[in-house]
Protein: Deacetylase sirtuin-type domain-containing protein
Amino acid sequence: MLYYKPSILNVCRCCFTAKFLSRRGLSTTQNLSRTNLPHQKILTHFPHAQKNAAFLSQFIYCPTACGGTRGLFGGSRDNVHQQTLEDIAENIRERKFKRVVVMAGAGISTPSGIPDFRSPGSGLYDNLQQYNLPYAEAIFEINYFRHNPNPFFALAKELYPGNYQPNLTHYFIRLLHDKGQLLRMYTQNIDGLERMAGIPPNMLVEAHGTFATATCTVCRRDYKGEELRKDVMEGKIPKCSTCKGVIKPDIVFFGEELPQPFFSYLRDFPIADLLIVMGTSLEVEPFASLAGAVRGSVSRLLINRDLVGPFSWASRHTDVAELGDVVSGVKKLVELLGWKQELETLMKAGGDEASINMEE
Structure:
């Protein structure tokens, strides 16, 4: 396991500003130690994450260290070139970036027709009244699922893989893989569109789980996701053939541990030479903290509707933000890379009926 010792890192821990702390729900008088992370309350639900919390804390970038002129490993930022999207594209095209890590959220799947969770009015959480839930998040709480699995499976019928098609963004990540430059993709999505686009499972870390596999909640027998599909599509609760217990897709519910592959970040992020963050609010921990887990000298590209996470409060000269529609941002990057024809060919080969014309 690759692990950086605290003594190696030149991180100023005493000058986190009130703005930084307020975004993490802390006051300026609270101690931000390695065991008192801003997301400590959330981490209590994830023992593995809590165990490794000290690692993530080593990579938190201090926006005001020495007047904001020092990066994670120190060094002046005076007279330093502010990186651009053109710079990122050039370095990808010339293969100076060979270990690209991608972090993605629901925003990369909304162009495929899948609603995200938190958008006012159109998000899933604002449209769950039909399930008679005590509160919206209950649909993904393990204790509520054990009491009443019906709402989850009603929602699963809508979200189940195969109901939607990958879009240009998924295929761009697939192209990065085909060119041997994708180190890993970390996704918050459970829709399976990354797999459908041809990104191999070993290149994926599905941080919030997947419909691709399932487990009996009683005897723990393993199932393939496709074995549940018929029951789910017919509005039935899938039952175990061995013990008749409820079979639950391997989606991570509130109150459950993160999947073990999530902790691949321990080896991936320290060796990444480019981080691309797309379509995420970076509000859900511990996933959100990964954006700060790359080395301070590493380029970070945000393709997103809004500035989020460290891009909004701890920007580096190596950060680039392409704001607006995610697909439009990816198209712009693809044009700069000169990969337009390759991407269109890949999408056609994938049989993507919902493919997005590059000329739009």
